[in-house]
Amino acid sequence: MGGLGFRDLHWFNLPLLMKQLWRFLMNPHTLCFKIMKASYFRRTSLCEAKHGYDPSYIWSSLWSVLGLFKEGLGRSIGDGRDTMVWKDKWVFDNELYISLQKPPSADDGLTIYDLMHEGEQRWNVEKISGLLGHVTPSVLAIPLSQHAAKDGYF
Question: Which residues of the chain have pLDDT under 70?
Answer without folding.
Answer: 1-6
